[in-house]
Specification:
The chain is α+β, with helices and mostly antiparallel strands. The protein has a single domain, classed as 3-Layer(aba) Sandwich (Aminopeptidase), CATH 3.40.630.30. The chain is built from four helices and nine strands. Strand 5, helix 2 and strand 6 form a beta-alpha-beta unit. The N and C termini lie close together (about 5 Å).
Length: about 190
């Protein structure tokens, strides 16, 4: 857990935080990006909720950003990989980043960076690789973070009827020097505990 300005970054561990995560996911992945169909209660519980670890950014007791990770098969990225067996090769300890949601009014602030830093710290000594299904339009941003594409973009149909292309990507741990320098910079800035 650490604080940066008015934001507290931590692993979600309270029932109220999980409820806020479900509502943030609904606003993000049903209302804003219509990836899933509308449900009456205004909550979207991730299909991997039971095995997810959630990292949250909190401002004044309100979850304004979340990132989820997990390390148990099945991995959703497997459906987008040209060779899903890479997730099972000897010595591979994969972690998948599943969801990232940040309230629109907090996207220009350090929320995303703080969430990514928490996930990196979580992964550092536990896993050999981190996998994502990155939105193809943002692949360059993921590459700046150290991720490398593992195949061609795979198009998925959303609930809205719109299609979105996802690129399976991986970053190996330990991180390359450039990304590690960014991680050290964040650690020095946040004074994480």
């Amino acid at each position: 857990m650490f604080q940066l300005g008015r934001y507290v970054f931590k692993r979600a561990d309270a029932e109220d935080e999980f409820e806020q995560i479900h509502r943030l996911n609904y606003r993000t992945f049903v209302e804003e990006i219509p990836q899933y169909t509308n449900v009456a209660d205004g909550r979207l519980v991730d299909k991997f909720h039971a095995k997810n670890t959630y990292f949250v950014a909190i401002e004044s007791a309100r979850v304004v950003g979340m990132l989820s990770v997990h390390d148990r098969p099945p991995f959703s990225v497997a459906a987008r990989l040209p060779d899903p067996s890479i997730l099972e090769r000897p010595g591979c300890k994969p972690m998948e980043v599943r969801l990232l949601a940040v309230e629109p009014e907090h996207r220009s602030r350090p929320v995303m960076a703080g969430l990514l830093w928490l996930a990196l710290e979580h992964a550092r000594d536990r896993y050999t690789e981190v996998y994502i299904s990155g939105i193809a339009e943002r692949a360059e941003m993921y590459e700046r973070l150290g991720f490398q594409p593992l195949g061609e973009p795979v198009t998925s149909e959303m609930a809205s009827g719109r299609s979105v292309a996802f690129v399976p990507m991986r970053v190996s741990l330990p991180l390359e020097d450039k990304v590690e320098r960014i991680a050290r910079f964040w650690k020095s800035r946040v004074g994480a505990q």
